[in-house]
Fold BrnA antitoxin family protein.
Amino acid sequence: MRRDRSAWRNITLSSGAKKLSVEGGRGEDAPRRPGRPRLENAKQPVSLRLEPEVLAKFKATGPGWQKRMNDVLKAAILDHEK
């Protein structure tokens, strides 16, 4: 039988809930892993209910339809502010 060699420990959160974590895991002082840098103004995921015809028109334009939808909404906001 193989032993689990990871060192688990219990951590009590301020809410009183218990959480398991692995010792030697990524702490606050650990260096960031390589990857894409965080954006200052990152886009937010959203759940949106649209009419099927609207969604179909944007999807029919091919890859990048979400960006085009974002551009149309942004232009409408800028136009409305005038």
Observations:
- The two ends are 72 Å apart (CA to CA).
- Residues 48-82 form one domain.
